[in-house]
Every structure is written in structure tokens, then in C-alpha cells.
Amino acid sequence: MFRRVLYSSSVSVPYHLGIPTSTIKNLRPCFSPIINSLSHKKRVKTFSKMGEARRPLSVHIPTLQKADRSELLRALEASIGSSFASEPLSPIPNPNPLILVISGPSGVGKDALISRLRHSRPALHFVVTATTRLPRPSEVHGQDYLFVSKEEFLGMVERQELLEYALVYGDYKGVPKQQIRDYMAKGCDVVLRVDIQGADTLRKVLGKSAVFLFVVAESEMAMVERLVDRKTETVESLLVRIGTAREEMKHVRSFDYVVVNAKGKLDNAVKLVESIIDAEKAKVSQRTPLI
Ligand SMILES: Nc1ncnc2c1ncn2[C@@H]1O[C@H](COP(=O)(O)OP(=O)(O)OP(=O)(O)O)[C@@H](O)[C@H]1O
Hints:
Layout: E1 2-5, E2 8-14, H1 21-26, H2 32-36, H3 40-50, H4 69-80, E3 99-103, H5 110-120, E4 125-126, E5 129-131, E6 145-147, H6 150-158, E7 162-168, E8 171-176, H7 177-185, E9 190-193, H8 196-206, E10 211-216, H9 220-230, H10 235-248, E11 257-260, H11 266-281
Helix pairs in contact: 5-11
Adenosine-5'-triphosphate (ATP) binds at residues 104, 106-112, 226, 229-230, 261, 263-266.
Family: Belongs to the guanylate kinase family.
InterPro entries: GK/Ca_channel_bsu (IPR008145), Guanylate_kin-like_dom (IPR008144), Guanylate_kinase (IPR017665), Guanylate_kinase_CS (IPR020590), P-loop_NTPase (IPR027417)
Protein name: guanylate kinase
């Protein structure tokens, strides 16, 4: 009896003779060294196992040129002995909602990055952080931040409504829990924008259930230039931010990803963040948010 050899459908060899050298050469290159190392007896045994899915000789499969598609599919199913399933092949057809924590020193471009992501990924929910700082000219309440008084903020702390909060450069900033729960319940991915202190706290609360991104400028000089050009800080506040940034850079290794936002290359940084989101969605072992 003649049987076909897997991966070399054009070659038929007598089963009891094993595999001819010419056939081994035709196999995928990665298989050749393995096959060559087998004894004659083992080759026969190996190919016998590999060929278990061979079609029964009685089933007629029309040629690709002549058969119509459905006829060919039916013949292939009959040959395999079962029908082809239409269920998703991916083990993760519905990936879990993602919590993305975006952090980094002051002036590296976190807000600029997030502002672009809002347009390129409208399905993301950007958690609106509560803050006691005053709005900058272009900032909108409820969109950029929830601008609240110190009393209102401390009330939120007391009622345990914040996932984390901190005093940053003299102002309170905090992440409202309920907002995250609500959006994740709808299946949305959520993005949190926090300072390094906040990211450290969130790591303790969320552990590996969230993805932590550290945004940096290409150099310290570039970061300082951006802060100066933004014209939002006093000289004193600039000095504090630069000193803090030097300390904060030491935390980069606790993050999952680093995103370099180079001068004039904001689009590249946005694309990198989008790729990270897509890669996380394709992970076989999904993160399970702990909130
Ligand atoms: N790739 C870039 N090239 C040039 N300028 C940039 C780039 N990214 C951001 N900027 C500018 O740098 C300045 C600082 O950016 P942004 O305010 O987004 O920083 P941030 O990290 O959010 O700072 P902070 O933590 O202090 O709020 C802004 O004026 C912004 O327009």
C-alpha cells in the first residue's frame, strides 16, 4: 500500500520503506535536522504518527481547479471525518477590558499624548481625575479634570470614593473609583493619567491587573525646554519639577512599558501606545482587572 507523506503531498512512498532522502530535503527546513537524526525505524514510526490525519482512500476529493468551493469543503469535511466549526479559533474572542495607567515626569507630554489618543481611539474612556488645582486656560471641567475645592476633595477621600489620591505640587489629585467600575462594566478600556507617586500607589492596589506606561522625553534637556515653552510654571515651580523628574526617572523599571515622546514625534508615541493596547488585547493570558 502507498501512503502520502505529510508536507510533501506530491510524493508517494511505500510505507514499509520509510522516507526517501529526496523527500526529507523537501520538508520545511526546520524539520530536516530532526528527521536526519532519526534511525530508519524511528522515521517510519514518526511519519506514521504524523500521518494519522490522512484521508481514507475511499473519499474522493475533487481537484482544486474543477470543484466549486462548497463541494470541495464538503469533500474535505467527509475526508477529515467531521464538519468544520465556525466558532472563533482564538481562545480570547472577547478580551478583558484593560486598565492603562499613563505616567511620567512633568512636561514629557502625557496630556498631549492623551489628547491625541482621544481622537485616534474614541472607544477608550479617559478617567477624569479630580483635582484641587485651578484650571489652565484651555482646560474644561469634567473633560480634562474634575476641578473641585479642597473641602469637596477631602469629602471624597473620607467616603473612600478614590482609588488613589496624592498631594502633587501643593494640589490634591485623585482617581474616582466608581467612574472606572461603570465604564469597565460596559466593556470599555480605561486610561488613567497619574503622576509617578500615583502610579506607585496604583501598582499596590491593581498589581499586574493593569498595564503601566512610563512616558519620557528623549532627553532631560528636551523635557525642560517643553516645560519652559509651555509657560505655565514659575521659576520656582520649574526647579521643583526638574528636581522631582530626576528622582522620578529612577522608577522607570517598575513600569511595564516605556514610551519615548521625542520632539516633533508625538504621532510615533501615540502609535506606540496604540500598539501596546493591541498587543495586550491579543495576550493569551489576559489581565483580570481587580476593581
Ligand atoms: N513630541 C512633542 N514635541 C514637542 N512638544 C511636545 C511634544 N509633546 C508634548 N509637547 C509639548 O510639551 C509641553 C508639555 O506637554 P504636556 O503638558 O502634555 O506634558 P505633561 O507630561 O502632561 O506635563 P504635566 O505632568 O506637568 O501636566 C506642552 O506644551 C506640549 O504641547
